[in-house]
Amino acid sequence: MTDHDPAAEKTDEELARDARAGSRRSFEELACRYKRRLFAYLRPRLGSDEDAEDMVQDTFLKLYRNIGSYDPAYRFSTWLYTSANRLAIDSFRKNAVARDKSAISSGRDLPDPAVGFEGEADATGVWAAARTLGTDRYRVLWLRYGEDMTVEEIAAVIGRSRLAVRVLLHRARTSLVGLLGPGAGRAAQARSGMAGQAAGD
Question: What is the rounded average pLDDT of the residues 31-36?
Fold first, then answer.
């Protein structure tokens, strides 16, 4: 007989409310649900797997400390990705001067922050292709189709207007189809969850 874990059956928002009321187990379940997804989102923006793993831990630590400020009127994922996005921006700014000095003194080119996440490959190759589009386009595709966020939620996460998000999504999808080819693009989009974008966006 297996142990029944009621936390596993709750929505993210229910778990966040329980965590806000003091349930450590509920917060651990949220961390378990989002750890790999957050890593996949952050990896293209950071220099290494280790940096992305550290940022995932920092994000969950920040959220745990500030769980009392979670507003249940909003999706937990929006709050999570907004916090992760802010931490990544802060980290990038803090390290920018050191990276620039190091690159200049060694004569090397600056590292590309959009270098793709080399983790588990998806069956269709859509996400691998999306990672080559650059950080901003990959981020909006991930949030829209990987996390099923609305345009409004994405705008809140990345700090841009809804119109800017719509334009970015359109350009990202167009570029992705250009990479995959029209026929392959449609089939891959359907398998990866990127289908039906025009109606939902």
Answer: 94
Domains and CATH numbers, the chain: 1-116 (1.10.1740.10), 121-201 (1.10.10.10)
Q: Is 48 left (phi over 0), alpha (psi -120 to 50) or beta?
A: beta
Q: What is the Cα–Cα distance from 77 to 12, expressed in whole angstroms?
A: 8
Residue 143: what residue type? L
Q: Alpha-carbon distance 133 to 189, whole Å?
A: 15
Q: What is the pLDDT of residues 145-172, one digit of tens each?
A: 888 899 999 999 999 999 999 999 999 9
Whether the pLDDT of residue 111 is over 70: the answer is no
C-beta separation of 12 from 77 below 8 A: yes
- Give 63's Cβ-side CA count (13 Å radius): 31
The DSSP call for residue 146 is: I
